[in-house]
Amino acid sequence: MRGLMQDWPLTVDRIITHAARVHGSREVVARRTDGMIHRTTYEALHARSRRLSAALQRLGIGEGDRVATLAWNSERHTECWYGAMGIGAILHTLNPRLHPDQLAWISQDAASRVLILDTSFVGLIEPLRHRLPFEHYVIIAGPSEMPANSLDALCYEDWIAAADDRVEWGGFDENTACGLCYTSGTTGNPKGVLYSHRSNVLHAMMGMGKGVFGIGPDDVVMPIVPMFHANAWGLAFSCPAAGAKMVMPGGQLDGQSVYELLDSERVTLTAAVPTIWLGLLRYLREHKLQLPYLKKVVIGGSALPEAILRAFQDDYGIEVVHGWGMTETSPIGSIGGLPTGLADAGPDARIAYLLKQGRPPFGVELEIVDEAGAELPRDGETQGRLLVRGMAVAGAYFQGRGGDILDEDGFFDTGDIATIDRFGAMQITDRAKDVIKSGGEWISSIDIENIVLTCPGVVNAGAIGVPHPKWDERPVLFVEKQAGSDLSVDDLRAFLTGKIASWWMPDAFLFVDQIPLGPTGKVNKLALREMAHEVELGL
Ligand code: AMP
Q: Which of 326, 383, 385, 405 has most ligand 1 atoms within 8 Å of its beta carbon, as the pocket-test mutant?
């Protein structure tokens, strides 16, 4: 027998419509590229998103079409999300930190038809134009701010002003595709994670929950995590759903700029990767400042360093929420915190526990398994491959890349190695995937190796990530030279320049007699990590 409740499809347009009706005067604040602060409301943002939908329709965009953005966090970027998603188009966020070759590859793979971009990225896109699939370009600017460009681009403000807001939103199945975000945290080419309306709505509700971020209408939330990183951790959905004021920081993310917005807008909750917090904490210390309004800092994307946890908690009285997740998990996968059963733990035990990646909220299941796929005990000590399954977890990649990614029980292998304890708290202990995470962004060790293997004089090479106090990890490259070759570190650096993004350049190059190989002939990364331990890298 079927239940007799209403059929109310979980589509994200309902989130911003709810915000406009119920929290219409709640502010959305954004820092523009020129540093000016712009203020609007959910009511206005809703109306402008609808105009944007109509403007997209005039370009012939409809259900299933991909609309790409290359933009920092702003109210206009938020309008693009709701405007595209409301009519069933798929909003594809591009990450400006990628190498231009990767940007071109991803745009082609997604076959996006429109690119809406910030003025600051025009110079990045112009030289790539002939390699991009876009039929239309829109520059996020008013008529007076429009830069000269060779993209035949439309001016964002003129474009939406010319459209009206008589547009049909929703009306499609809740499993319709809604957002597309590529992850480079896998081997091979980046892969697209295709979120659905349903997964985004459920994930937004999960994020609002008290045991997760705990967002309510009295909160002021500043998502520093970019909208091109896994849905900005769902905050562009959770905030309007909760009626929280939203503060969008744009592209200025240094300690001073972050502090100024946190203070002037009285932000109560903010979220970013550890590297951002190091910059903020340094600025606070140097200028002897406090953050009296800030209650919670969400830290994820990389492991939470103890020094950051202690500084926020002990020096500033701010609660730290440590989260683990992936682009593939929308991204919330687990949240750190002390189980009630451990409420009496001493200070050091508390810290040790808070540094764990934590427990999955309802809607996410975690398991650890051995190499044969057998489940391992939840004893807090046994390490295994971390698997995940849930209501907002990827079931396949866009275009079927990577083939079948689920095991027979429907679990996805995260590529992380972890323990799980009797309270269900997970701790990452290692990474099986061959990637390096620096300042919250992926570096492909395989790409660096493949490029350097084409350098004359190189016999074999292996790249690994080594811990770094600011960037979490930085790449180090081990190189085996041909006998008699006089290849130098400067030669290698010169060879890689221009072939990889500048921030991918290894911090250290080490020549070795022989690159250690594993049983299948592949570079033995474990052995390289041990070798890296033994040498003073001076990073
Ligand atoms: P991404 O898809 O770029 O969000 O990256 C997901 C990966 O980042 C995870 O599989 C982990 O390897 C890593 N990661 C994310 N959050 C954490 C965390 N809190 N602690 C350790 N590693 C993390």
A: 326
Q: Which fold has domain 9-26+43-196?
A: Rossmann fold (3.40.50)
- Are the C-beta atoms of 100 and 125 separated by less than 8 Å? no
Nearest CA to ligand 1 atom 6: 326
Which whole-number Å values give the CA distances from 53 to 29, 62, 163, 510, in the listed order?
22, 9, 9, 53
Q: How far apart, in whole angstroms, are the C-alpha atoms of residue 212 and residue 330?
A: 14
* Rounded distance from Cα 252 to ligand 1 centre (Å): 23
Q: Is 302 in the pocket of ligand 1 (CB under 6 A)?
A: yes
Any atom of ligand 1 within 6 Å of the Cβ of 428: yes
Q: Which of 57, 113, 53, 121 is nearest to 82 (CA)?
A: 53
- The span from the CA of 404 to the CA of 286, in Å, is 51
Domain boundaries, the chain: 9-26+43-196, 437-534
Residues involved in catalysis? 183, 328, 437, 442
Alpha-carbon Rg for the chain in angstroms: 23
**CA 71, 75, 78, 80: dihedral to nearest 10 degrees?**
-70
437-534 has CATH 2.60.60.30 classification? no
Pairing of strands 37-41, 66-70: unpaired
**Cα 143 from Cα 155, distance rounded (Å):** 6
Question: Based on the number of CB atoms within 10 Å of its own CB, is 24 exposed (0-12), middle (13-18) or buried (19 or more)?
Answer: middle
pLDDT in the model for residue 476: 95
Atom index in ligand 1 nearest the CA of residue 431 equals 12
pLDDT digits (tens, 9 = 90+) for 394-424: 999 999 999 999 999 999 999 999 999 999 9
Per residue in 350-389, pLDDT (tens digit) is 899 999 999 999 999 999 999 899 999 999 999 999 999 9
pTM of this prediction? Answer: 0.93
